[in-house]
Structure formats: C-alpha cells, structure tokens
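Structure tokens please, single chain.
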Amino acid sequence: MGRIAGDGGMMIHETTAGCGRSPDRAVGDLRRVVRSPCRTPRILVIAIVALASTSVAMAHPISLSSAVVDVREDQIQADLQIMLEDLVLYHALDADANYIYSAKDLRAAAEKHKQFVLDYFSILDADGQRLVGQLDQLETDKVDAEGVRQTDLMKKSVNYLLSFPVAKPQEFLTFTQTFGGPNAILPALMDLMVSQSGVLVDRPTQLTVGRPHSIKFDWDKPPSSAPLSFRELRQQREEQLQERLGIATYGGLYSFLYITRAEVRHEILIPLLTLEQWLPLSRKNPDFLEVEEQDAARGEIEQFFRERCPVSVNGQQVTAKLTRLNFFGLDINDFALNAVPRRVSVYQARVGVILTYPSPTTPTKVDVKWETFSEYAPYLRTIVLVGDEAPAEHYFRVNRPDFQWSGKLPTAQLTPVPVTSQALTFAATGEVLGKLLTNIYAAFDFRDDSEVYDALATSIKGELLRDLYLQVKRSLIMAEQGGAISHVDSVEVVSVTPPKGAASPTTNATWRVTGTVEHWGHVHTRVNEYQATITLGRDGDAWKLESLQPTSEQRVKFQTRIRGRE
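Here you go.
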C-alpha cells in the first residue's frame, strides 16, 4: 500500500502499487506524484490542491503552471511544468485549418521559452539575492508528432528541469514568479511544492504575482519521515507554530489589539508588498528598501494608519502615535528581539507597525475601525488582548469594519505592611521585605508619574522615594524591546540575613523579579536577580524602606512565549 502526504515535513512516497518511484531523484519522485495518472491520494490536502487546480483551469488564466522544487545542501532542483496553451499565447502560434498546432512550432516555442522560464521564476536567498539557475533539460515528449489540437492545449505540457548550485545549506528561501510577463494584464498562477532532500517541508501553495512564498529549512534536524496520523501531524504543526512564535506564514497579515489601563495599542505585522498595495514606498532599487528609505517612509506610514484605523476611547477620538516602525527580514528573532535596522528585500520584508492611542482616563469603552482592505487582504483577523485575559479574536470585514469593547480593567492593589511586634524577627524579615518590594514594583502599573509617586509612598520612606523611583524604572526597561517598560509579574525574596538594629533593622537581601513585555502576541519574560543592603523603618504602624544600597544585579533568564500557549 502506497502513502502520500502533503503537509508539514511529510515524506512523499509512491501513491499506489504499480506507480514506480526512483530513489535517486527526489524531484522526479515528486513529479510522479503530480503527474501520475494512477495516483490515489490518501491525504486530504493533495485532493484539495487537485480540486483547486481544476477550478483555476476552468477560470482559464493567461498562465497556469506548476513547480516542484527539491532543496539539498549543495543544490536546488526545480521541475517547472508549462501548459502548451501558454506557449501558444506567449509566442503567438497559429493553428491549421483543423485547429491543430504543429509539433514543430510547439517544440520551437518551447526552446524560445527557456530564457523566459529562467528570467521569471526566481529563488532568493536569506539576503534577498537571486540565485543563479541553469536549464539542465527540456522535456517535450508530451507534444504528439502529429501536433496538438486546440482543445488539448490545457491537457498537455512541457517541462523545464532547472538547477541552482549553492555554496552552503540555505536557511531561508523565497520563491517568486512573474509568468504573466513584466507587463501582464491578467494574473499568472503557479502551484508550488517544496521538499527538503525529498521530504515535503511546506504545504502546497499557489504563487501569484506580487505574492512571494518563503520557507525556512532546518539542516540540524532535517525532516526524515512522515507523520503516521493526523494527531502526529497536528503535533508537528503545533511545534512549528511555537518555534515561529505564532507566525504561521511569512506572507500573512497579523494584527494584535491591546487594551490596557494607560492606552489602546494596535500592532500590525504586514508583508511589505501587501502594504504597497495601499501605500507604495519610494526606493531607488526595485528589489530592496534601504535603511534611509525606511526612515523616510515613517511619516507616510503614520499618516496612512491614522486615517485608516481610527480609535475612540470612552467616547473620545484619540490620535494615533506611531511608537514603533520596523522593517523585518525572514528570521523570527528579528521581531522577537527588536533587530537592528538593515537593508531588506521587498519580496521578504515584513513591516512591523505599532500604533499607540494614549487614553486620558482608564478605558471602559473602546471603538476601533479598520478601513483598509485589498485583494490580498479581504479581511483582517485581529487577536484582542485585554489586560491579562486570554486572547480573543475578531475579524474586520468590508461590511463590518468595526470593533467595540466595554468593561472594567483591574487596578493595581497595594497593601501597607503593618508592624506587628516591637522587634523584627529573622523569620518575619523575608515576609515583610517581600510585601514591600511587591508594592514598589506594582506602583509602576499606575498611569502617570504622580500616581506612581503616591503609590510608592505607601512603601518608601523619606528621601529614598525619588532615588528608588528612578532606579526601579531603569531596571524595568527592556532594551531587547526598544526600551519598553516591563510589567512585573512576581517578586521572590531568595534570602535575607538576620536583621541588625531594633528601630531601623538592616539586612542583606537577595530577590528575583520576573517582568514581561508583550508585542506581536509574544510575551517576553525576563528574570533578574538583585542583591542589596536594605534598612527598614517604621512610619506610624507600618514598615517602609528607609534605605537601599544595591550591591549586584544579574540576568537569570530571558525567554519568549506565545500568549495563551504556556
């Protein structure tokens, strides 16, 4: 019994008994899967691809082709299948009185079409540089010697076998096609299947002009076998989603809407080519966007989203502020760690836009409108994140472009630490200090400086207040996330020494602070450990910090996870 799989790193095997499989050429093996007249698909995705191809053929575009690509460590092979009707259209062939196109004309057109295939099918490396390909073989065996009837032009094809030598294993590849030609009026469609050393690494997809497709290849742990069940397939997809931090496709449009006590924040991750459907950006090189060109586009992008994504908070319209603009490459870590600006390929780049809508009062009602749609973005799926609640989703559509939220956000809770005995015992020192430190970090959840100061005053005594405000605020800044202030999730006192002094006990303390910053649906968690000499003082019936002399600080942990996927 044969097996066939079409998704997520699954091996391509022979499809039925009697359909042969060559172990020497993965591309030839994949070609047999696509071409085989006796194939009996057992995985639903292949059947879906076949149905999709049938519907496209009925629509009769100018160009309908397919590409089967096998990626190896030192070479990439591609088998491009071109319908005979494309040759007739591109090269203006004429049929005879019986509507038959001669074999001689079709084969001559196939020869002329070689350079067209090399020019308009492109593979780009991780830097956006086009790989140089060569034609190894042209197969015209499906062209009958007596010619081909006009009604059979969409049933027969020629095949171009290409190779692209590479000096090292490729981590990322991007595939593009412009088979409609440089000045096409109607779209050209190409079905694409990509394998890594014979194992399918990505679901079959369709390439259209202006919609490149990028794939990541793992050469340390390359795919080697097919999942044996849909449960294993789901698990594999889940692992890939975790590795990619929730970004399932490189060409997808992602939206995250945060509602916090201080602001509404809309974060949009959008392919550059999709953005340019609405807002073309100026550049000298049609294939790349330089850093200075990225900077120059900031004002245009801010104005564009201000107009197309209005927001009101508590019934009052709030002007958007573009607080962050990044042009990312293909590496997921680029936007997980706030990558340094650099030149990007327009076929691979994604634009990270963070729009902030500061609220003069804590939001209880939020209205958002999204007014930007296109052929490639007919709707906008948005993940809504309110406070610490679980993620929800909302779809903006042409006929329903609005989103409304109403509710009450939690407020920071501070608890004074009462003096319960005349002298502070060793056993109670850690507990008292833990409550005071928790209050101090929680104070930074308030909206503005005056509120933060008032909150800090419940736990800090005298002149220490100002110094500790600046010191703690600096410690909460995450450089990895562009200087964003992290939210403290927990404070843990690791150790204290026995207190010295009765009225103002002094101890050497070690504590750990877990803080988080969230962007693009990713929670960036940092754990820092601090050591300091701390003196406590009484203020009426409550304990407060009287002095704090830091002695050391070190990073203990940094990790990134997806909200809702702990």
